[in-house]
Each structure stands twice: as structure tokens, then as C-alpha cells.
């Protein structure tokens, strides 16, 4: 934003006239006095009267994209909240005191105005009506800073509006930063969205989505869901839930993206596909689910092929959720509350994967209290088939659930029924975590990647000669993926297959938009052509697609 776009008046600077050398020598003025500039000619040299034009402060706060916590600290500062500044700001009714995104609100502090302006830049906030915005503000705690925190948290943990790659069960989806979608791999149910059921190893753009910007994608067994920047959901593939191998197979196939009619009145920002259900997250932070049969494991009864979304009841009804993650038979929800971030879980509790210290099922969402004990603020959550993981704001990683093959990273195969910090990553500041079927990946703030768990299909990236000779060794503690360091780029996202019935493959997305793949490739899901008689690739290979 510049002075032109914000309608801020041009500031006139006045030079102090240089005095002759003789005058400087004969006067009491110091010899090394420098020429100074200042705003408005009646102020003393060097003084910058912010109280006379608080729009300058607002412009700086907005342009710097300050964190909501920083804005709160500024608001608490006696310097920032100088009575004279705020009095002039309110009483003088400066027409251009706010950026061009909205009319000035003289009831708000500068930090609140800055937070509101930054909210205006978010894709999911722009189309909201004034009534919807005020309702969101009320639900978030009556502060635009809390609304901004809610919006930023959702973007950070799900790469909303950014390039992303999804390693689905046998097929893959890649979304560019501009919202174009490519798909490749298995296509027996039409899950690639190209109007056919022919599998294809070469990434191909879904042409029928031309003119629609996709901001988020989800892939399940034989099905794909895409979410547009307008909050609409497009789905294709099998029309039922559950793995085909489990015995539930849809009677019809959808081979091209179709709008999900039952979601037309909900502005959706994320979808997560489990084995027996699909969950969606609305712009306002509400969670809805489709299908789990008649066992009421998500707080409601449905038929296996139910097409109507049901709100997730219980503790999340009045809580803002920023991210959802679906495991095989359970759901995790990362929520933003005025007191901080928290995680809720619901569903099947086998293996302790719900994180409550027991292995019992939970019909309604329940707060995982262990994070308060650990003094950890969750910022990213991941749900594997039978285990889960969280990254904290301080960079610590916690895992819990079924520890088979060492997927929890604690050096053993024990189960953990409450979140436990991965001590082997104590010197690493994590920013991202991804989980699959007994496999976990962690990305550090400097772009290094660590993996642990099941070593089948070379999906961990530790494809050493010794591992090959012994048949894909399992890794019980985090090990750096040395093969990814050779790409000489910072990795920002890892995605891996989360299914019990498909051999796993893994994607690594770099900061510049390059995509690397390794693991199982028997269906073309790596996006690269394998040599004859090969079904997997141990070392990362560049996929011929630019996601930047």
C-alpha cells in the first residue's frame, strides 16, 4: 500500500536553509550541525509529529504484517497509546486515517485498525458481508486481532492459498500457487478428474476447472475433494466412503469435478478424508462431517452413504477450529481460543490415539489436556492412520498413539496414550509435521527433513545400501533425510500416503515450488516414470511440474 492507494496526502518536507560558513563560526551553533527535515513547517527540526497524522503509524503497522501478539503488545504500550495521539485521531476525524480497504472506524485503536486491514487481505475474509464479519468478531472474542490470529493460524497449518502436494492412496494431487490443479496415478474410480478411468503417471492439469482457483485439496481412497477460493467444494471419484478392500464400494463413479450441492450454503476452507467419513471446515471455524454409519462415533447417526453434512456437536460448537486432520477412524481439530491454541479429538480410541490417557472411544470432541501440562501451544496437527503428531509454537514435536515400527520417534514401539515430546528432536525447531500409516516426517525451520517409522516402500527417504540389503529397515528415532539435503533447497511441506491398504509414497515441496517424490510408484503416483520391473523409488526425483 502506498500513499496513492491509501489516499494519504503527500507530506511536504521543508529544508532548513544552509547558513554561511562565517555565520556558523561566529555563532554559538555547533560546528557539526546537520541539515534536518521534518513534517509540517511549524514543528521543531527533527521532530516527527505522529499525533498530527496517525495514518502514518497505521500504514507502517499494516505494511509490516505484524503478528497479532505484537499488535497487542503495542496496544498495551503507553507510548503507542499516547492520549494526545488517540485524542487527535478521534476528535479531528482525519478522513484518511485508515487504509483504503475500509472507511475509518473512530471507535477502534490503531492496532485494531491494522488488524482489520490485514484481515481484509485474506481471501476467505474478503467476500464476507459486514454482518458475517461482525459475527466472526464476536465469536473470536470481540477483537480484530483475535480474528486475524484465527485467519493466520488456518493459513499457516494447511498452506491455504499456497502451492501444495497431496500424496493420496495410489494417486496424487498438486495445486499451484495460482490455483491450478494437476493429478496423476491410479484412476480406477475416476479420482484424477480427467473424465476417464485410465491411470496416468504424467501430471496433467484438470482442464474442467479452468477459471476456478483452488486453494486446498484432499485425497482419499478412490476419491478427491477440491476447495475453491469462493468456498465451494468439488468432488470426484467413488461416491461412497470406506476402502474398496474393506468391502464398501460405491455404486457410481464421478470422473470429473462436480460441485457438492449439499455444501453450497457453507463456505468451506478445508476438507479431510478418513476411512469411514469426510470432515469439512467452514470459514467461521465450524466442523461438519459426512458418514460414519449408525454407531454415532461422531455424535450423530447417519447412513453409510449419507450426503448431508452434520455439524460436529459438543465442545466445538462455540469454538473456532482452524485445522482438521482425519485418521483412519478418528478426527483431530486444532482450535483457536482467546486463551490460546488447543487440540480436540473424537472417534475411535484404539492405541491411545485420541490422546486422553485411555484407549476408549469418544463420541463427542474432547479437549486434549496434556498440552497444558507440557506448556505447549499447538500450531500444526497431523493425524496418521493410528498415531498423531503436533508441532508447538516453540518448535517442539509431540507424538502419541500406536507406536508400531517406531512411528512415534521415541526409540521404541510402545504406545503412548497422551502426547509426548520427541526428545530426539530437542535441538530442532520444527515448523511442519506430516503423518501416514506408521510413518512420521518433521520439517525444521531451516528446511531440514527428519523421518521415522515404517521403512516399507522406501517412503522414509533413507534408501541406503544397508537398508536395501535388509529389506527397508524401520527407523525408531528421527533421522535426517540426507537425500533431500542434496536438492539444495529449503523444504516447506511434506505429504505422505495415509492409508492401510496402499503402499506409501512421499512428496517434498520446496520454497521455490519444486516438487520431489519417492516411495511407491506402481500406479504412477510419483509423477515420474520408473524403469522396467521397478515399483518404487528410494531417492527423491524431481516431478516435472512447477507449483510456484
Report on the architecture of this protein:
The longest helix has 15 residues, at 144-158. This protein is of the alpha+beta class. It starts with 20 loop residues before the first helix and ends with a strand. It is globular. The strands form seven sheets. It has a four-stranded antiparallel beta sheet, with no helix packed on it. Strands 5-6-7-8 form a four-stranded antiparallel beta sheet, with no helix packed on it. The protein has a four-stranded antiparallel beta sheet with strand order 9-10-11-12, with no helix packed on it. Residues 1-52, 78-102, 242-250 and 464-469 have low confidence and may be disordered. 48% of the residues are buried. Helix 2 packs across helix 5, helix 3 (68-76) packs antiparallel against helix 5 (110-120) and helix 5 (110-120) packs parallel to helix 7. The protein contains ten helices and 28 strands. Strand 9 (268-273) and strand 10 (278-282) form a beta hairpin. The protein has helices at 21-26, 55-63, 68-76, 83-91, 110-120, 130-140, 144-158, 370-374, 465-469, 482-485; strands at 164-167, 171-175, 181-185, 200-205, 214-220, 223-228, 233-238, 253-259, 268-273, 278-282, 287-290, 310-311, 320-326, 330-337, 340-347, 362-367, 378-383, 387-392, 397-401, 416-421, 430-435, 439-444, 449-453, 475-480, 491-496, 505-510, 514-520, 536-546.
